[in-house]
Design brief:
binds S-adenosylmethionine, 8-stranded mixed beta sheet, 293 residues, two-stranded antiparallel sheet, 18% strand, alpha/beta, elongated
Length: 293
């Protein structure tokens, strides 16, 4: 990973306005790459709406993933973020952000690299706000990785494909699954607003949704993360079946497991609360199944 050049600051003389994003895109020939999930937001009003929703003055550091030509980055800085660290995989975008980095030498660092390989622990001890219009192909993986560092996070304000946002925030029904349980176990979740395809250049095939996740001070209920994963995987793996059947591959006596978790054996995965999944995970760990597998 390499830092982008951030040099001279505004020196008191009159500051020229930043060029429009369309000019930045043209000058740096940022022809969108599908492989990098590049759909750029050029509307300053919409970028400002996302930036304000992230409450950018609260965390000491904001990590922005995939700044692209910098629409959201500009909005975060304009909304008062003390420090933005922007991690971008596309070298062309890193170069295009040079002018913005030069304008905000003390508040913006642009890092060229893969966000999947970026360890947020390198940002120091301050609590971090993550803000991103995420590339669709890595959004969920990034979220799961950040959850592993939940104690470092102040909040996450993230744009996902609408269907993924529905899976994250569902509390039952067909969108409810392992991802919902994992996220809601650790965070409170709020769907903020949808963004239609025409807001992006180029327009994606799907609608997007901005979601705000705030880490709970303690997880919703006690559970071992691996045990929680195991029980949700088994339960949602056969989501239409009653749990006494769906959990057959997980435990030799699913009925006893469910009984010790206080869950009716006829219940189905889609009707269990996150707290009940935690009870199931605890019961499974207590039965020693975790070690036997
Ligand atoms: N934030 C910009 C905006 O709203 O206009 C761009 C958003 S675009 C949906 C996703 C951005 O993430 C692109 O700039 C892309 O190059 C970048 N990107 C894709 N995969 C990445 C990865 N693994 N690590 C860092 N950046 C990535």
């Amino acid at each position: 990973m390499s830092g982008a050049g951030a040099s001279n600051a505004a020196s008191g003389a009159q500051i020229a306005p930043l060029p429009p994003l369309s000019a930045v895109i043209a000058r740096h020939d940022l022809k969108p790459k599908r492989s990098l999930g590049q759909h750029f937001l050029l509307d300053p009003g919409l970028c400002g709406k996302i930036a304000h929703a992230s409450r950018p003055r609260t965390p000491a550091v904001i990590l922005e993933v995939g700044p692209g030509p910098g629409g959201l980055t500009r909005a975060l800085l304009a909304a008062g973020a003390a420090r933005v660290v922007a991690v971008e995989k596309d070298r062309r975008c890193v170069a295009a952000l040079g002018e913005l980095a030069a304008r905000y030498p003390d508040r913006l660092d642009v890092i060229e690299g893969d966000a999947l390989a970026f360890d947020i622990a390198t940002l120091g001890h301050a609590r971090i706000g993550i803000v991103a219009n995420l590339p669709y192909n890595v959004g969920t993986r990034l979220l799961l990785r950040w959850l592993e560092r939940i104690e470092r996070l102040d909040s996450m304000t993230l744009m996902f494909q609408k269907e993924v946002a529905a899976r994250i925030t569902a509390t039952g029904g067909r969108d409810y699954g392992g991802l919902s349980v994992r996220v809601q176990w650790l965070c409170t979740c709020e769907r903020l607003f949808d963004v239609g395809p025409r807001a992006f250049v180029p327009p994606p095939a799907v609608t997007s949704t901005v979601v705000r996740l705030v880490p709970r001070s303690v997880p919703l209920a006690p559970a071992e993360p691996d045990a929680l994963d195991a029980v949700t995987r088994a339960a949602f793996g056969q989501r239409r079946k009653m749990l006494r059947r769906a959990l057959r591959g997980l435990a030799p006596d699913p009925q006893a497991l469910l009984q010790s978790a206080g869950i009716p054996p006829e219940a189905r995965a889609e009707t269990l609360s996150v707290a009940e999944f935690c009870a199931l995970a605890r019961a499974w760990s207590a039965m020693g199944q975790a070690e036997e597998r």
